[in-house]
Design goal:
binds flavin-adenine dinucleotide; FAD/NAD(P)-binding domain; 7-stranded mixed β-sheet; 20 strands; alpha/beta; Polyamine Oxidase, Chain A, domain 2
Length: about 325
């Protein structure tokens, strides 16, 4: 381990991809994550013996570095191919245009290989970052963190990054240019299979845009039949502050109406609000970095609303920060 200390705020795929690259270049990295679990919007909600991928549904891999990471995840057994039967409005797709991959046993497993060799402090929300003569200090819910860091990477959705980085220089004013949209996700489990004519439904209009049978993904727990339903951005905005129990019932109703399926009473029904779900207006740069203060920000919001974009943004930020702290990536690992 080298003597250079770097803090990463946020353990979604952007933060962990950034942390992994920094650690590979011998930095001593600490990741601070507000939630108990890792993965952020690449998340799996567990409830007893049930599991729902309530955020990202699948990934595609196109760039060389993400394809390489997908191979590592595949070898580690945390990534599998998903070939669902798809209906878009009334049109049947024989196969997705790209290959679709999913984390297994849940989407969040995809980040597991990234968190090795990195000190991850979960359940620690950072609400202020302070620049002093000695470096960066972090103020968390439970007080000031012990360490002083030589550099900082903020890997949280743009509006939250603005709160942390806004006071630290002109570079971060660009965060105002980014906009993100919400999404309500419904999670439903049924005792019997629900036949809707497909494993995945997509709609281009109406209150819901997506419904998928999680249980059709590889290596899911046997037993109940789990479905995830996503509301459209417009519907989610309209119901943004509604009660989650009421939203779950509304989404169940919309799911039945849109598929025309006769749904049995669900054994489990729950809704989750993603306040900053999708990037509507991205930054248009791979990351934001201020060389003078050795601080930067990354996330899907830099490039596009996709897991792969978040991964690329995190990696790019790591490569930008390394020379600022006198480190470089060994040629063999580039
Ligand atoms: C409903 C939904 C469906 C989606 N479907 C797909 C899909 O099918 N395919 C696809 O490629 N992409 C999909 N996406 C997009 C994809 O999930 C995101 O692009 C990607 O996961 C973003 O990763 P990230 O690391 O940039 O941000 P996040 O995953 O949001 O990670 C940020 C992390 O920072 C933490 N955090 C925030 N503030 C603080 C703080 N102050 N202190 C400490 N920690 C903090 C959060 O808890 C979170 O863990 C979907 C997203 C949603 C919401």
């Amino acid at each position: 381990m080298g003597g250079v200390r770097i803090a990463v705020v946020g353990a979604g795929i952007a933060g962990l991809a950034c942390a992994r690259e920094l650690a590979r270049a011998d930095a001593q990295v600490t990741v601070f994550e507000r939630s108990r679990g890792l993965g952020g919007r690449l998340g799996t909600r567990r409830q007893g013996n049930l599991a729902f991928d309530h955020g990202a549904q699948f990934i595609t891999a196109r760039s060389r570095s993400f394809v390489k990471y997908a191979e590592i995840a595949g070898r580690a057994g945390v990534l599998g191919r998903w070939s669902p039967r798809i209906l878009e409005d009334d049109r049947r797709w024989e196969a997705p245009i790209d290959e679709w991959y999913v984390g297994q046993p849940g989407m969040s497993a995809l980040v597991r290989p990234m968190s090795r060799n990195v000190d991850v402090r979960s359940g620690v929300g950072i609400h202020e970052i302070i620049q002093s003569q000695r470096g960066w200090e972090l103020q968390s819910d439970s007080g000031r963190q012990d360490h002083i860091f030589d550099a900082i990477a903020v890997a949280v959705p743009a509006p939250q990054a603005l709160t942390l980085l806004g006071p630290h220089g002109r570079t971060f004013r660009h965060l105002h240019e980014v906009s993100m949209a919400p999404c309500w996700a419904g999670m439903f489990a049924f005792d019997q299979p629900v036949e809707t004519g497909a494993d995945v439904h997509r709609w281009t209009q109406g209150p819901i845009t997506w419904a998928a049978c999680d249980s059709s993904k590889p290596n899911r727990p046997p037993g109940l039949h789990c479905w995830v339903v996503h509301a459209s951005i417009a519907w989610s905005r309209q119901h943004l502050e509604d009660d989650a129990v009421a939203v779950a019932q509304l989404l169940l109703h919309e799911f039945a109406t849109a598929t025309g399926a006769r749904l049995p009473a669900p054994a489990h029904a729950q809704a989750h609000r993603w306040r900053h779900a999708f990037v509507e207006q991205p930054l248009g740069l791979p990351c934001l970095v201020d060389e003078e203060i050795a601080a930067g920000a990354c996330g899907d919001w830099c490039i596009a609303p996709r897991v792969e974009a978040a991964f690329e943004s995190g990696r790019t930020l790591a490569h930008s920060l390394l020379p600022m702290v006198g480190l470089s990536m060994p040629a063999l690992l580039r």
